[in-house]
Each structure stands twice: as structure tokens, then as C-alpha cells.
Design a protein that fits this description.
Layout: H1 2-15, H2 25-37, H3 46-72, H4 87-114, H5 124-150, H6 162-168, H7 175-196, H8 204-213, H9 247-255, H10 261-265, H11 267-270, H12 277-297, H13 311-316, H14 322-326, H15 333-347, H16 356-365, E1 397-400, H17 403-407, H18 409-424, E2 429-430, H19 441-446, H20 449-466, E3 470-473, H21 476-485, E4 494-497, H22 498-507, E5 519-522, H23 526-530, H24 536-545, E6 547-548, H25 577-586, E7 592-595, H26 598-611, E8 616-619, H27 620-627
Parallel strand pairs: 1-2, 1-3, 3-4, 5-6, 5-7, 7-8
């Protein structure tokens, strides 16, 4: 029964769309060791992490006893060669029987007493049944070992099995018959579990290690590109039906544990939107299971959007990556959501009406603000910034300004501050001016992959023609596209954030700020800290100019400002995400809310104004410029 179901699931995976995840094998092996065996991501939450680790490690230790029982049920005198006679191993078995029982007790306490919201929408009855089966597995194992000792059938020294030996005194007369009862009960429970496993959420026992091994090893902010240069039959425009899912997305859906950690950290869910990353994956999984036979038979399939996954959920996502960072089995939720958006936008022309003007402006004039391309360098007038024209020698550093700093009044202050600081430090830099276009990030996150790729190829051609090798960007979204996604289109550059360069200049003594007593709390941009691992350098700058005060949600576990996933240009349902983040910042008691992203600047400044909080929202570059001596 297990094999039949496993073969069906394997056929589904083989019928899915191809995806190359065979690179960087050492990193993948490391993930297996740390995430799977070491349970690293589960320990991000200590108590549930300990609970799961006790059960998981317990079954690793107890696995040989399953083989022993399977053969021992038929031949009572058979023993596992060498291992079955080792007292130290049987002592470990007793220790981990207790560990598993303790883990089950903690699990029931969390689920029945604490009842965290992250379990909303999960199949709790199924989880209870699985915990019951796990408990039966270890209790029947204990009874089997105890009855073997009582009947004198143990091959190992009984005194090593402190727990089984103590229980053996309760077995009483008829120990030999009870030994048969317990071993067959143990085997039957295991076989029941085996048959139930591939139909339940505990399918992750078989697929999680595979999913972790083939998870993305490059920066988390990169999206898998679609191929438009292949034969039409092989072309893919996102995920319309389960036939369009990649094999990794298929295995993702099989691997969901329904733990709700992704849901618990989702800023959209936290502020009353319908989105739950967990329910997105569960919905896709349910549709895969329901329509799998049709897929294999080449039959008709229904759209995922509006069936397995409600459309509201698809558009609520801010692509912040909190779900991916938190997931203990390395599910890539953003890939699923963006693929659903790609199909809706490019194939169905179905998307929120307020995003239409943004997509049109990006495609028409090269920026989501709809401003003339010729005005892109207007912000730098009077600053003495060199603009690289065609044929000019490449600067040591190209400053990629980005659309926000070029066209938004509040965002451009950070660009002006950065330029003045680079000039003070004597850095050789220049900008592209009107030759710079939108990186395509808003269009790509919205689902219009075609427009993104058009701008990626255009910008790569410009950058390669210019001959630049090192780029500094103030916008984390530009940083992410240039550094993580443009290599897929032939653009390979050293890309760094402006806070990284400024921190470097600070360490070299080229910038010398005067520290103030102002309390400053720093907001980590999702695309900077979580997607691109830049969290220390902005804090160096904050510490150099004032007194840092940290928010609870920070670093890789930061809380989004609400602008990502093209939400800078979309209406928001429910409580505003930016106002929730401002509330978290205000709780620190700081006077200043420091940022390092133009989108965050705009969103959090709007949040401050709407909530009436007394906070100054300002980029770290501006804070640094204000404290740098003119001498």
C-alpha cells in the first residue's frame, strides 16, 4: 500500500516541469547536516524545536529496533548482528523512548493548552492521530523489550536497559506470550503508520530531506527566470494549473508540515489579510492530490488560482521572505505565489486594477512613477556628480540611483546624502543618468516576467558597454536584481549596498562622524537583511552617530514595511502593514527611525503620519552626513 502511493507521488513529480537544482553540492550537503539532522531552523523557536528534535532524533536512534522487530516477529531468536547485543545501544534506546514520550507530551501541551494561532487552518485531528501512533510505536517497543527481559530472551545485558528492565518486573507470568503480543503489536502499529504516512501531512517524513537538499543555495531574493527562448511546447508562463508546477514546487507541497511558522511571521496575515503562506501550500497540495490522476492521464485540469488558492491570497503577498526564512523544511513560498501571479498577469490579464498604471509606466517610460526618462538625473543638479556618457571611461564605482531616489522627493534625500559622503571620502564614482532604467523588480514581483526580462537585458547591455565592474545601490530591490538576478542574463558585477560602502569608509577613517545622544532604532529592510544578508553594516553607521535601540523583530526576522511585491503601488486591505511596523518602532522609545531603503522611507514616513507617532524617519546615510565633520 505504501509502495503504490509512493509510486503515484513519484510519477506526479516526474510529470512536473523541469528545474535544475544540481549545483553547489557541498552547500546542499551542509544543509542536510544542519537543517535536517541538526534541526537548525526548528530551533528558531526553542520549545517547539526541542519537542520536534526529541521525536526526530529519537526515531533515528530507534530505527534499527524497527528492523529487529520486523524480523523478530517471525523469528523470536533472531538478533541484529552485533548491535542487538550491545548494552550501551539498548540504554540509548530507553533514553530516547523517554525523549520521544516527552516530545509527544510537549506537542500535546502546545496544541491543546497553548493553542497558538499558527495552527489555524491546519489539520489538527490528523496531527493528534499521528502523535497517538508515535506514542504507540514507542510504548509497544518498550513492552516488547521489557517482556523479552522478563522471559529471559534478551541478548543484551538487562541492567543496561534501565527503563525496560524496571518495566519487566511488571510483566508477570506468561512473559513469553506477552513478548509475542508486544512484538506483533509494535510491527502492526509501524505498518499502519507506514500506510497512513503518504496520505497525511506526515508525508514530510519522506520528502523533507529531499526538499531541503534541493532548496535554493543562492541568495533568497532571486526568483527562477522563465525561459522565452525555448520551443512553444516547452514554454511556461507561471503556474496556471498543477501541470505548470516545477518538480521542486510539487515536492514543496508534499513537504508542508502544517506547523504554521510561516503564517505566524507573515506581515499580511498579522494585519488581517487573507494570505496565509501555509494555506497557499496546503491548497496547492490538495489540488495536486485531487487532480493528480487527471494530470497523469493527460486530462483537463482546473486553475489553481481561485480553486486551490484564493486570488486574494495571491495578491496580498509582499514577497518579504519571512515565510521562507522560517520554514523548517525549506519550502519556497514566494516562488509559488509569483508563479501564480505570472499566469494571472501574462496569460489571464487578471490583476488588481490599481497596479495597471504602474505596469504601464514601467513598460512605457522605464519607471513606475511615470516620470520622463530625461528627468532621471534632475535630483543631482548642483551636486557635481559625473554622468557616464557613451564612450566615457568607467568609474571605479557606479552609483545605481534607482527610480525611487530619482523621482520621489522623500527618497532622493538619501541619494543626495550618499553622494555628498562619497565626495567627502574622495571616492571615484559616477551615475548613468538617463541611461539608467528601472531594474524591472516591481514588474517581476507583480508577475510580468516578460517586462522584467526586457529591462534586465537592456540594463545589462548598458552596464557591459560602460565597462563597470562595481556597483553601489541605495535601493535593496535594485541591489537584489542587479546582484542576484541579472547574472541569469549575462550581468555579473560586484554589487553592494550604500550602507556597506559607507561602513567601509567609516572603518578606513575616511568619514569621521561625531556621535550624538539621540536614540535611534533601525528598521531592517526585508530585501536587505533577509534576502541579501546585510544587517551589520547599517548598524555600524547607526552606532557611530547615536544610541542604537533595537526592535524585537529585526535582522533576518524583521517585519516588512509593506512595500514589497509591488505593494508600493497597490491598495492594501485590512490594517496597514506600515502602521504596524511604526507601532513596533515607537515601542522602543527611540526618537528616530533609521532606514536603508527608499521604499521603507516612503512607507514608514506615511505610517508615522497616519498613526500620529512622534518619530523621525530618515535614511542612515542622512544621519551619517549630519554628524560628519566638515573639517
Amino acid at each position: 500500500m505504501f509502495a503504490r502511493r509512493a509510486f503515484f507521488l513519484l510519477r506526479l513529480v516526474r510529470a512536473a516541469r523541469p528545474l535544475d537544482r544540481t549545483d553547489d553540492v557541498p552547500h546542499r550537503v551542509k544543509n542536510e547536516a544542519t537543517i535536517v539532522l541538526g534541526q537548525r531552523k526548528l530551533f528558531q523557536r526553542l520549545v517547539p524545536g526541542v519537542m520536534h528534535a526529541l521525536i526526530f532524533w529519537g526515531f533515528l536512534v530507534l530505527f534499527p529496533t524497527i528492523v529487529m522487530a520486523g524480523i523478530g516477529a517471525i523469528d523470536r531468536d533472531w538478533s541484529f548482528p552485533w548491535l542487538g547485543r550491545q548494552g550501551w545501544y539498548m540504554a540509548m534506546v530507553d533514553v530516547f523512548i523517554l525523549a520521544v514520550l516527552a516530545g509527544i507530551a510537549v506537542a500535546f501541551w502546545i496544541r491543546k493548552i497553548v493553542r497558538p494561532r499558527r495552527f489555524d487552518g491546519s489539520h489538527l485531528g490528523e496531527a493528534d492521530f499521528i502523535l497517538f501512533l508515535i506514542g504507540l510505536v514507542v510504548l509497544t517497543l518498550l513492552g516488547w523489550h521489557a517482556s523479552r527481559i522478563a522471559a529471559g530472551l534478551n541478548e543484551w545485558p538487562a541492567h543496561w536497559s534501565f527503563l525496560s528492565n524496571a518495566v519487566s518486573h511488571l510483566v508477570g507470568a506468561g512473559a513469553s506470550a506477552r513478548e509475542r503480543t508486544f512484538v506483533w503489536a509494535h510491527v502492526c502499529v509501524i505498518l499502519t503508520f507506514l500506510c497512513y504516512l503518504p496520505y497525511s501531512k506526515h508525508l514530510h517524513i519522506a520528502t523533507a530531506a529531499v526538499n531541503v537538499f534541493f532548496s535554493r543555495t543562492r541568495r533568497r531574493g532571486r526568483l527562477e527566470p522563465l525561459r522565452f527562448d525555448v520551443p512553444e511546447a516547452e514554454m511556461r508562463f507561471g503556474a496556471g494549473t498543477i501541470r505548470d508546477l516545477t518538480w521542486k514546487e510539487m515536492v514543496d507541497s508534499f513537504s508542508c508540515t502544517e506547523c504554521g511558522r510561516c503564517q505566524d511571521v507573515c506581515p499580511a496575515y498579522a494585519t488581517g489579510k487573507s494570505l496565509s503562506p501555509k494555506l497557499v501550500i496546503m491548497g496547492i497540495r490538495d489540488q495536486v492530490f485531487a487532480e493528480g490522476p487527471n494530470l497523469l492521464a493527460g486530462g483537463d485540469l482546473t486553475p489553481i488560482a481561485g480553486n486551490g488558492v484564493p486570488e486574494d491570497m495571491i495578491w496580498d503577498c509582499v514577497t518579504c521572505g519571512a515565510c521562507v526564512h522560517e520554514c523548517p523544511v525549506s519550502i519556497e513560498h514566494i516562488d509559488h505565489i509569483v508563479d501564480l501571479r505570472r499566469d494571472l498577469v501574462m496569460m489571464q490579464s487578471s490583476f488588481p486594477s490599481e497596479a495597471e498604471s504602474m505596469l504601464r509606466d514601467v513598460e512605457r517610460v522605464g519607471n513606475p512613477w511615470g516620470k520622463p526618462q530625461g528627468d532621471r538625473e534632475a535630483w543631482a543638479e548642483g551636486l557635481g556628480v559625473r554622468v557616464v556618457a557613451e564612450g566615457d571611461p568607467a568609474p571605479e564605482i557606479l552609483y545605481w540611483v534607482g527610480c525611487a531616489a530619482a523621482y520621489d522627493e522623500r527618497a532622493r534625500v538619501a541619494a543626495e546624502s550618499t553622494v555628498k559622503l562619497l565626495q567627502k571620502a574622495g571616492v571615484d564614482f559616477a551615475i548613468l543618468g538617463a541611461r539608467e532604467s528601472c531594474t524591472g523588480d516591481p514588474a517581476r514581483r507583480m508577475g510580468n516576467e516578460y517586462v522584467f526580462q526586457a529591462y534586465a537585458e537592456q540594463n545589462v547591455a548598458t552596464l557591459n558597454e560602460t565597462g563597470v565592474t562595481k556597483i553601489v545601490a541605495s535601493c535593496p530591490h535594485c541591489l537584489n536584481s542587479l546582484g542576484n538576478e541579472y547574472p541569469d542574463f549575462g550581468g555579473r558585477y560586484e554589487v553592494m549596498h550604500h550602507t556597506q560602502l559607507l561602513a567601509e569608509l567609516l572603518r578606513e577613517g575616511k568619514l569621521e562622524p561625531v556621535k550624538s545622544e539621540t536614540e535611534i532604532t533601525y528598521h531592517d529592510s526585508c530585501y536587505l537583511a533577509r534576502h541579501n544578508d546585510v544587517a551589520a553594516e547599517p548598524r555600524e553607521l547607526v552606532a557611530a552617530v547615536g544610541k542604537p535601540v533595537e526592535m524585537e523583530k529585526r535582522g533576518k526576522r524583521t517585519f516588512c514595511c509593506g512595500a514589497g511585491g509591488a505593494h508600493m503601488w497597490m491598495e492594501e486591505r485590512g490594517s496597514p502593514i506600515n502602521e504596524e511596523r511604526v507601532r513596533q518602532a515607537a515601542e522602543t522609545g527611540a526618537e528616530t527611525l533609521a532606514v536603508a531603503c527608499p521604499f521603507c522611507t516612503v512607507m514608514l514616513d506615511d505610517g508615522v503620519r497616519a498613526s500620529g507617532k512622534q518619530l523621525r524617519v530618515v535614511d542612515v546615510s542622512t544621519l551619517l552626513l549630519e554628524q560628519v565633520s566638515d573639517t
